[in-house]
């Protein structure tokens, strides 16, 4: 029986990197990267959620090259992932990126936790480094959405680099790049690759600005100069509306933009009381938006007025032609009201990441710095209101 109660897992390590396993669309699976105090003692926890029994099964992979700042997974190959991690070189700390393969037996969501998974962790196979010595510190790695897992983008200091992976991901070459120029803090903090326009567009954040790039020409398409009052932390594209982008930042706000008209946001949310680190649109129902913040809260909002279904459903011409239904239609012409669906308070530390499952559209995970991972579901009443 499906239950709305949260399921909580403690990693026993500090952590800030979380991703769903994008290519896994059957089993509910998340990956978490740690920031242990012991530098070479980092791990990736593979979290399989068994929603029938409401339990978490975990497997541990060793990541012995340094603490993990960002983790993302191939859209095409369940076993392939990338990490951005710190390492010390010539007594300086640098952030590098690499592509890895997990052991074959772990690549698909399993519902068994080996009894000895923590005492007997497995190792990751290094496929290739995204060698960035010339380009500075890696902020994040973005895989081409819905791609074949052969193209990715890395953001390093003020460079945007497009990589081609060859020979089963064991070789990475830079195919083109762009450089951030101008005044202010010229260092990328985050970015998102748009699933629209044949995957030719990327949005990036640096300082208080958001920029759009056309990766065919590596040229800047737009720049929202002061998108937030303070640092922009995260971005996400609406999966169903090609020009809509969400952003969040240290001004405690979440903003929604139509990038065709960047003079002001379409909508702004001010529900968090501290920095907002993470914003994510639901992959199927884009009115559902998740945010995580240093106020230790996760907020699920219903941004229906700017969604692809502002009347609660996609309006079909045929529905409008039946005179019997006319009275009903009049009533439902009014767009639905935006609202906060729920505020989740299971965390006691900064929530650095929120992610929707790639297998179950009603399920999401959040991660706070103390290593607490919480799995929650969209409230059942709302789910049925959206579906029925």
TrEMBL record:
Q: Where is this region: Disordered?
A: 313-336
Segments of skewed composition (Basic and acidic residues): 324-336
Q: Which GO terms describe its biological process?
A: protein ubiquitination; regulation of cellular localization; regulation of transport
The WD repeats lie at 225-261
Which Pfam families does the record match to this protein? Beta-prop_EIPR1 (PF23609), WD40 (PF00400)
**All residue ranges annotated as the EIPR1-like beta-propeller domain in the record:** 7-300
Keywords of the record: Repeat, WD repeat
Q: Which Gene3D superfamilies match?
A: YVTN repeat-like/Quinoprotein amine dehydrogenase (2.130.10.10)
The family annotation for this protein states: Belongs to the WD repeat EIPR1 family.
Name recorded for this polypeptide = EARP complex and GARP complex interacting protein 1
What organism does this protein naturally occur in?
Lepisosteus oculatus
